[in-house]
Amino acid sequence: MLRFIKHHFDSIDNVEIYPIISLLLFFAVFITMLFYVSKIPKKNLEEISNLPLEGEENNNDYE
Amino acid sequence: MEKEQFYYDNKIVKMFLIATIVWGVVGMLVGLLVAFLFIFPNYMEGISWLSFGRLRPLHTNAVIFAFVGNSIFMGIYYSMQRLLKARMFSDVLSKIHFWGWQLIIVAAAITLPLGLTSSKEYAELEWPIDIAITLIWVVMGINMIGTILKRRQRHIYVAIWFYLATLVTVAILHIFNNLELPVSAFKSYSIYAGVQDAMVQWWYGHNAVAFFLTTPVLGLMYYFVPKVANRPVYSYRLSIVHFWSLIFLYIWAGPHHLLYTALPEWAQNLGTVFSVMLIFPSWGGMINGLLTLRGAWDKVRENPILKFFVVAITGYGMSTFEGPMLSFKSLNAIGHYTDWIIAHVHIGALAWNGFMAAGIVYWLASKLWKTELFSKKLANTHFWLGTLGILFYAIPLYVAGFTQASMWKQFNPDGTLVYGNFLETVTQIMPMYMMRAFGGTLYLTGFILLAYNVYKTAKAGSTVTDELVEAAPLKQISPSRAPNEKWHSWLERRTVLFTILTTVAVLIGGAVEIIPLLTVPSNIPVISSVKPYTPLELEGRDIYIREGCNNCHSQMIRPFRSEVERYGEYSKAGEFVYDHPFLWGSRRTGPDVHRIGGKYNDNWHFNHMYDPRLTSPGSIMPSYPWLLTNDLDISDTEAKMNAMVTLGVPYTQFEIDKALFLLRNQAEEIEKNLRQDPEFVKNYGESNMQNKEIVALIAYLQRLGTDIKKGETAQN
Asked: Which of these, B568, B609, B564, B603, lies nearest to B704 by C-alpha position?
């Protein structure tokens, strides 16, 4: 009886294409991103990561 | 370049901060009321709007959208202005956003107890409120994008990417899940039915957790943790990886919510693979958050705010580890429908969301009112009460989940169930429910201390709201990439493009999941014996929805030996084709009811609804005495059937024209059945029970799951 509900999607033409598209896309995006991230110069990274700490406020009320 | 002077809008942040505290108390209080209903099911006896099925959605909506929602907006309005060196785009839009959101919450707090609900979890609000949410969300979006466009800071910090992803994704999720056909001002039907409705709902449900409770709070983490620890984030590179993999992955992990229910295997496997992969970005994020405190661990001892952050981030790590684990079929079979899920989501809500919000509130309180926090000691007490509360809440429910799941599955050697009576599996875990209520009480007590602490701080502090700052305006540079500029660095300053890319990322993920769904209705095997509900059953179904029965009873029997033995034939996709909306449920506090039809006689249901303990001693189900006294409202019956026809349910014109006649006939039939019991005649002989709501509900329950019992099978 299991097959009764298991294969509703099988009758859609070429249904396998969706998971395949998603997998390929994900890996493509992921690898490209890793590549670019590794290329960002350290100086830029430091500059941006210090953004929250800028400003006139004293950030250390509890020190 | 000459510097410009401008003011940060602190008033709007204060307003959201106060709303966070107020709704936090309300949402947790309702949660506690609900937790006590497990132990004392009678204590709200007879008050329809305080019954479990109506309060539970109020609790979830209040905590998610009112408490966490306001805390997110509080953090976003504070951090965005500073990260972009600009006042919010428009004060008017900020105010509309604030008051609009609060009005929506009030509307929810009124309509949900009244039983006005669409029944879809975390999207229960009816269509007029759904539209209001959309409008307010757009207002917030314009305000955010407008601020980004007038910024004085070239590059956009990672926190803001998370805010933008939240903005676009929540909009998409909200709109697609709430497509519904209105019948009256406060009643609508989902345009999707059965399997399709379930898929859309849990695509929404899972991603709402991701994009409402996770991504914006991660944005807050990336701003406030460095701010409080006074050191930059551990690895900015990791934060970029975190961001892109998270938005690409999360949106694809939806199907795992329906594992082991009537779904195709490929969707299950896809969901599982992606859910496991989700561990990598989220743990990357957790590590990034925790390691930001490198070299500052001594501060964690001193500073209650950092303590809150550390437990919050650890909670994030725990629940994002658990999520993928729950997507494994074997573990999912245990977790689904049991208290494990309730424990899991509360690690997220109490530790991750609740403690992040608390830490930020404490920090902002001293900043906004320009004074020291009233009492650091009280904040520390809150921290310990809260942490103990989380443990007392979650651990008993993990135990309860495993205990109950294993009790459901135990067989005697002769092939019968050891715990054939569902109730035995509930009474067994009652001590766990008591501990849970105790944990919740501790947590709420801690939170009330926060409210008091902030109140005292505000009273002692300055009332100056706006803060004068100066920053150089942004020099105009070419929108195209400079010769030496790196790709991601360029992308970061092209906000609009960045937002579009995020949207595309999210849409692709959604499309891959949704497109096969759109073709599903034509691919579900037709079961010829499955017919639309009769007018009376349709009205009964709406009462089932109004009372929120689906909060405790599933209508989805999984193809397990133990479930088929307990409930009967497992559920088929073809049985739900007329279910607008689907009512599969997500938690079995009581037994599954998909095959309840015909299992008991009408009198049993009548007595059971009047007082569940008459038929099932020890039951923790609330009583529904008002169903016996409320007249059934049939003014919309024809309109409801017409709406169903529009949605594709094959009612004939004859059936619609004769709707009330058919309805009365069936109701009379049920009253006749009820009168076979001399007790009924003695107690209710004079009352015209056929006109009451109970009759419609009985009609619906007796119909449930009976269509395929007629010996018919599919024609596929």
From this structure: B568
| Closest CB from A1, A18, A53 relative to B515 | A18
Question: What CA–CA distance (Å, rounded) separates B222 from B351?
Answer: 17
Average pLDDT over residues A24-51: 82
pLDDT, chain A, mean: 67
Q: Could you state, in order of their start, the residue ranges of all structural domains in chain A? A: 13-42
From the list B439, B610, B620, B544, the residue with the least C-alpha distance to B54 is B544
Q: CATH says B293-470 is which class?
A: mainly alpha
Question: Would you state the structure tokens that stand for residue B446, as one six-digit string?
Answer: 């801690």
What are the angstrom distances between the C-alpha of B578 and each of B36, B65, B192, B530, B702?
Answer: 36, 31, 9, 9, 17
Give the pTM.
0.92
**Angstroms from B432 CA to nearest CA on chain A:** 36
What 3 state SS string does B39-101 have? HCCCCCCCCHHHCHHHHHHHHHHHHHHHHHHHHHHHHHHHHHHHHHCCCCCCHHHHHHHHHHH
Mean pLDDT value of segment B550-575: 92
Query: A20 touching B, CB under 8 A?
Result: no
How far is residue B364's CA from residue B410's CA, in Å, rounded to a whole number?
53
Q: What is the secondary structure of B354-403 as a DSSP string?
A: IHHHHHHHHHHHHHHTTS--S-HHHHHHHHHHHHHHHHHHHHHHHHHHHH
Residue B653 exposed, middle or buried by CB count within 10 Å (0-12, 13-18, 19+):
exposed
In this complex, do A57 and B240 lie within 8 Å of one another by their Cβ atoms? Answer: no
Residue B287 CA to residue B234 CA, distance in Å, equals 8
B535-710 has which CATH code? 1.10.760.10
Phi first, then psi, for residue B555 (nearest 5°) are -130, 55
**Cβ atoms of residues B538 and B637 within 8 Å:** yes
Residues 195..214 of B with a Cβ closer than 8 Å to A: which?
A: 195
Q: Which of B104, B132, B95 is nearest to B13 (CA)?
A: B95
Contact A12 B519 (CB under 8 A): yes
Whether residue A59 and residue B227 make contact (CB cut-off 8 A), yes or no, is yes
H/E stretch holding B182 reads strand B180-184
**What does the pLDDT look like over B367-390, one tens digit per residue?**
999 999 999 999 999 999 999 999
- Contact assessment for residue B10 and residue B466, using Cβ atoms and an 8 Å cutoff: yes
Residues of A in contact with B508 (CB under 8 A): 22, 25
Any idea where the domains of chain B sit in the sequence?
7-153, 293-470, 535-710
CA distances from B98 to B70, B217, B220, B366 (A): 9, 18, 19, 22
Model confidence at B488, pLDDT cuts 50, 70, 90, reads: low
Q: What is the ipTM of this complex?
A: 0.78
Comparing B253 with B600, the larger pLDDT belongs to: B600
Write out residues 35-54 of A within 8 Å (CB-CB) of B.
36-41, 44-54
**Alpha carbons B245 and B360: distance in angstroms, whole number:** 26
* pLDDT at site A61: 39
Residue B480 identity: S
Residue B211 has pLDDT above 60, yes or no: yes
Q: Give the model's confidence band at A34: pLDDT under 50 very low, under 70 low, under 90 confident, else very high.
A: confident
